[in-house]
Amino acid sequence: MTATPKPKPQVPPKPAAATPEKSPGAIAMGWLHTAKFLTTAPQLHFLPALDVPEIAFVGRSNAGKSTCINTLTQQKQLAFASKRPGRTQHINLFSLGKQGVMDAVLTDLPGYGYAAVPKQDKIRWQQVMANYLVSRENLKAIVLMCDPRHGMTELDEVLLDVIRPRVQEGLKFLVVLTKADKLTRAEATKALSIAKLQAGGGEVRLFSAPKRIGVEDVATLLWDWAHPKGGVIAPMAAPLAASQADVADEPESLDEPDAA
Ligand SMILES: Nc1nc2c(ncn2[C@@H]2O[C@H](COP(=O)(O)OP(=O)(O)OP(=O)(O)O)[C@@H](O)[C@H]2O)c(=O)[nH]1
Ligand SMILES: [Mg+2]
What we know:
Elements: H1 24-32, E1 36-41, E2 54-59, H2 65-73, E3 91-96, E4 104-108, H3 119-135, E5 139-146, H4 154-168, E6 172-177, H5 185-198, E7 203-206, H6 215-226, H7 239-244
Parallel strand pairs: 2-4, 2-5, 5-6, 6-7
Antiparallel strand pairs: 1-3, 3-4
Helix pairs in contact: 1-6
Bound molecules: guanosine-5'-triphosphate (GTP) and magnesium ion (MG).
């Protein structure tokens, strides 16, 4: 007697592998990675007029502006970062945009407040920067980099006064508390609450380049600001909780010279 062959079980066809949806942070980081050097100029009137949103990084010399731009764009030497304060001496523009289509610009500005700079140069630079912040037409957002170990300096306060009318007209404003890896948890919490009071309604985030604190969070904010209509409405990762998880328990010794 021959056994009736068992019918083979029907195996349902495998569904095509679904492409995992990118998180807002990943989209923002991909966009920032497209950054390319666009141009450099000693003063506002040498810059090309642009009609895409521009996001400027400002702050005290040595605060970490250039490092922040390099970290966000995932490029080691796009902006000049250096242990020597005063490394950035021109207004440097970097274009952003997928498929070579520029849709925004990042600006790295020289820092202020470095004691070794001659007085005349300081005054000249403060005028160049104030002129840029007040008159640059496509300026959409300002990122004020602040080392929380020094807090906001008098010059930071002057800058806040200069931009206040534009912030009231809708200019976006973010205070980035840099070098968060140097802070204890308690210091980070304190720095955040003080900066929130000083930022007058602007955003505040902790940031560390080596520990990657706040990187995707800041990236997402910039992406949203540069793409207000089609932008992903980012569910902002709770900055305090996420960032503090990475904050050191004890501060390390300082390894870079400080501007006076
Ligand atoms: N520990 C630590 N050091 C940092 C961080 N960001 C920047 N630095 C260091 O701070 C120093 C100054 O960084 P820059 O990015 O050149 O600062 P800047 O604000 O562009 O300075 P200027 O161009 O002079 O205005 C360098 O030694 C950096 O390595 C950070 O998140 N953590
Ligand atoms: Mg710099």
